[in-house]
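For anyone still unconvinced, we reproduce a single protein record, the chain in one-letter code, the fold tokenised, and leave readers to judge:
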Amino acid sequence: MLLTILGLPPAFLLLSFITILCALYVVTNTNPVYSVLALILAFFSISAHYVLLNAQFLAVVNLIVYAGAIMVLFLFVLMLLNLNKESEPIVKMGWHIGAAVTAGLLLVTLAAALHKSSEQIMRNPAEDIGLVKNLGKVLFTDYLVPFELSGILFLAAMVGAVLLGKKQTNSKENNNYSETSSQ
């Protein structure tokens, strides 16, 4: 059977199949909203890959950042752009052929790289290496100063974004308002 020949877990193969199908649907579908929804499903299956590799923190971060925030941003942009068939440029057949050749070469390269690799890639030598508890211990012991400095940097960036986004009022308008209110 194919599963025993490859030596890979069936869950990994199923998730890989789902990820590849969703990615192909994203590229080939003409409706951008359906493409974004398929991309969300691809991100969910990639997060499931992280869980299989015992990296739960990466799985959760992938779901929050990509499937959550980035995809909502994509949907808002698509809704704001209001794409129509009339506004899309006509794509020539040469681009399709070039994309197919490039994808085929990438597939051959990946197949050769995976053929040379051993089965140890799928094995996780340390069972608890991807757990959040261990990541927290390392962050708050070995990397405490860089962690705190990055927190201060993010706080400064948020304050700067709020100050830049705040509507600035003209001093002349404030003077006119104070003159009219005193009369």
Observations:
- The chain has two domains: 2-126, 143-183.
- The mean pLDDT is 78.
